[in-house]
Amino acid sequence: MATQLPPLAAIRAFEAVARHGSFTRAAGELGMTQSAVSYQIKVLEERVGTPLFVRRPRRIALTEIGRRLAPAVSEAFEHIAAAWQEARHGAQGTLVINTLQTFATAWLARHVGSFQLAHPGIAVRIETEQKVIDFARNEADVAIRAGSGGWPGLVEHQLIGTDFSPMLSPRLAASVGGLREPVDLLKLPIVSPNDPWWPDWLVRAGLAADALAGRPRTSLGSQSVEASAAIAGQGVALLTTAFYRQEIEAGLLVQPFDIVGTEGQRYFLVYPEARRNAPKTRAFRDWILPLFDQKTA
């Protein structure tokens, strides 16, 4: 006999409340009233035979049974989402890559053509977003994230570090007779002088962390735009070294000093555990990891 399951609506309500820690936010996400969500939780608790949440003033908490149940329910929804995506698109469908704008512009757009040549049956759609997406509610198959890793429920593959160093156009460097030591950079206009990376690099270069204090607090919004400004001779930009090797080789940019700063973070390829063996995910993973000298899994 098949195991009897509780109503899907009750399970969905439980997963949303457990994830948000709030009946109100769960109701907003599900398009339900708060009382309807509370009713679904009550239905589930009656089926289980024990409370799943402890109700306290202005907050709720999972009970011990609730804490054991929540991860399994979330994983089940991930499997359903992955199966649904595979059913809709299949191995020969559209691979949706969610990534940061800088990675998309400075690296992915330059290389993704070789993936498409190797997999002509897979179309590619690149979405750029700065915030961390929820795979259960986003169409993305894989994502490129920057950080320290450790995202629950996701498989992670390290790609490259976020090391950075000042770069500028050769013409701008020549305008002050060349750059012989780091202090010479202070003679030039700086692109985004309030970039939080600057104090770290300045200290590594033997300069004061606040050496750029007093400069106009301009910000161009993304590293790709800052790189374009640097190539155009508008100033010195602090750029991720791994992204602009082609521009340096082509003579569009120079990196005057070998001094690099780092936040200790990296770019990662990530995707839900449930999609590890999905054909599109496997194809992209097996293509991108060797390009960064990483092992496939």
Task: Walk me through this protein's architecture.
The chain has 297 residues and is an alpha/beta fold. It has 3 domains: 8-86, Arc Repressor Mutant, subunit A, CATH 1.10.10; 87-162 and 264-291, Periplasmic binding protein-like II (D-Maltodextrin-Binding Protein, domain 2), CATH 3.40.190; 164-249, D-Maltodextrin-Binding Protein, domain 2 (3-Layer(aba) Sandwich), CATH 3.40.190. It is built from 10 helices and 9 strands. The protein has helices at residues 8-20, 23-30, 34-48, 64-89, 101-118, 170-174, 198-204, 223-231, 245-249, 279-291, and strands spanning 53-56, 59-62, 94-99, 123-128, 142-147, 154-161, 164-167, 237-240, 266-272. The strands form 3 sheets. Strands 4-3-5-9-6 form a 5-stranded mixed sheet, with helices on one face. Strands 1-2 form a two-stranded antiparallel sheet. A two-stranded antiparallel ribbon has the order 7-8. A hairpin with a 2-residue loop joins strand 1 and strand 2. The longest helix has 26 residues, at 64-89.
Question: Can you lay out the helices and strands and say which pair or pack?
Answer:
Blueprint: H1 8-20, H2 23-30, H3 34-48, E1 53-56, E2 59-62, H4 64-89, E3 94-99, H5 101-118, E4 123-128, E5 142-147, E6 154-161, E7 164-167, H6 170-174, H7 198-204, H8 223-231, E8 237-240, H9 245-249, E9 266-272, H10 279-291
Helix pairs in contact: 1-2, 1-3, 1-4, 2-3
Keywords: DNA-binding, Transcription, Transcription regulation
InterPro entries: LysR-type_TF_proteobact-type, LysR_HTH_N, LysR_subst-bd, WH-like_DNA-bd_sf, WH_DNA-bd_sf
Pfam families: HTH_1, LysR_substrate
